[in-house]
Amino acid sequence: MPFSLSPDRAQAAKEFAAAFVPGQRVCLTTHVNPDGDGLGSEAGLAHLLKARNIDVVVTNPTPTPPRFGFLFDDLPGVDRTAEAIKELRRADLIVVLDIADLGRLGMLGETVRSRGVPVACIDHHVGTGVLPEGPRYLDSDAAATGELVFELAIGNGWRVDQSVARGLYVAILTDTGGFRFSNTRPRTLRVAAELLEAGVDPEDIYTEVYARAPEGRPRLFAEALQTLVVEPDYGLAWVTVPPGAIERLGVSSDDLDGVVEFPRSIEGVRMALLFREVSQGRVKVSLRSIGPVDVASFAKRFGGGGHTKAAGLALTGSLAEVQATVLTAAREYLGLDGDRDSAHG
Ligand code: 5GP
Ligand code: MN
Fold first, then answer.
1. How far is the CA of 174 from the centre of ligand 1 (A)?
2. pLDDT by residue (tens digit) across 181-231?
3. How far is the CA of 341 from the centre of ligand 2 (A)?
4. CATH of the structural domain 216-344, one choice from 3.30.980.10, 3.40.50.2300, 3.10.310.30, 3.30.413.10
């Protein structure tokens, strides 16, 4: 069965696209520490909008990690993240991708909140946060925001050329962990197939995203994995980034992508965590689950969020304090889940 869009979704795609008017200046933005889905969706949408004579720029709260820089090679001058606030002040429309909450826009949140222009949103997270009024294209069943950008293109009859397809393929590849995670639906693979047919070379993309690492990336993995703690009784496992390791190894937090899959991969583990001090007194926690454990609702208790099986949160406190708080809550949460014994039976 080839990819097709239901009449309802096609209608929603058309209604969303009515916000785009030729000649308009549009800013695309995504969450702090942008990932392959946020950036790939932006690159794909930027190509689609440029083809409709829309003046489009990308204005993210934090810089593009080096391994995703290639997405903007054929969009000269479009990644205006260094001048984000200035660009947002000139925008007629702001499009927020891969989040639905001002709180995840970092230092851009206040400008986006107070600009007084429509704020459109394309997102696949569970639940929505606070955003100014504007059109929405949301589906928490989508594997990636890139899948939704593809739907927008199809629903509006916009041509998905090789440049568009490359961004959207990166989005889907990275948010499904290379088509391994539970969010990989038949529909996801149908979209991916369409993107390959549009000319994406999967090996090229794999090389850019995963196989041009700085030497520091595997060294960072090695240091983080040394800290592994496993509590088989709870089905809990976690790793911690040694403070200062990222700076010392000359890498960025993006280079931690995938490290939490190692504690998650241990037999019997139901919840895996990665702790990282992002600044003095501020700790970020990545959460992953296997089976029925819902880490998005766990993260929400601490002001975080995400998806059922991949979520995150950030708390104020020392590394030791945040670990104590989150791990105590996690043990209780897993205990309450009621199937602790069966996980090891
Ligand atoms: P990661 O652990 O890879 O940074 O993020 C996993 C998922 O959780 C992503 O969908 C991401 O958007 C979400 N997430 C990560 N950190 C936070 C956070 O601090 N707040 C919220 N609301 N979601 C987060
Ligand atoms: Mn995403």
1. 14
2. 999 999 999 999 999 999 999 999 999 999 999 999 999 999 999 999 999
3. 33
4. 3.10.310.30
Handedness of CA 10, 12, 15, 21 (dihedral sign): negative
18-33 burial by CB neighbour count: b if 16+ within 10 A, else e?
ebbeeebebbbbbbbb
311 close to ligand 1 (CB < 6 Angstrom) = yes
Q: Which of 262, 179, 178 is nearest to 220 (CA)?
A: 262
Looking at the CA of residue 125, tell me the nearest atom of ligand 1.
10
Could you tell me if the CB of 307 is within 6 A of ligand 1? yes
Query: How far does the centroid of ligand 2 lie from the alpha carbon of residue 295, in Å?
Result: 15
Of the candidates 114, 103, 122, 107, the one whose C-alpha atom is nearest the C-alpha of residue 19 is 122
Instruction: Please choose from 39, 125, 279 the residue to mutate so as to test ligand 1's pocket, defined by most ligand atoms within 8 A of CB.
Output: 125
Rounded to an integer, the average pLDDT of 103-117 is: 97
According to the model, what pLDDT value does residue 2 have? 87
Q: CA 139 to CA 234: how far, in whole Å?
A: 32
Could you report the per-residue pLDDT of 28-39, keeping only the tens digit for each? Answer: 999 999 999 999
User: Tell me, what amino acid is at 211?
Assistant: A
CATH 3.90.1640.10 positions along the chain are: 7-210
Domain with CATH 3.10.310.30 in the chain: 216-344
Architecture of domain 7-210: Alpha-Beta Complex (3.90)
Percentage of residues of the chain with pLDDT beyond 70: 97
Determine the average pLDDT of the residues in 309-322.
98
Q: How far is the CA of 320 from the centre of ligand 1 (A)?
A: 21
- The residue contributing the CA closest to ligand 1 atom 23 is 305
- The residue nearest atom 19 of ligand 1, judged by CA position, is 313
Q: How far is the centre of ligand 1, averaged over its atoms, from the C-alpha of 312 (Å)?
A: 4
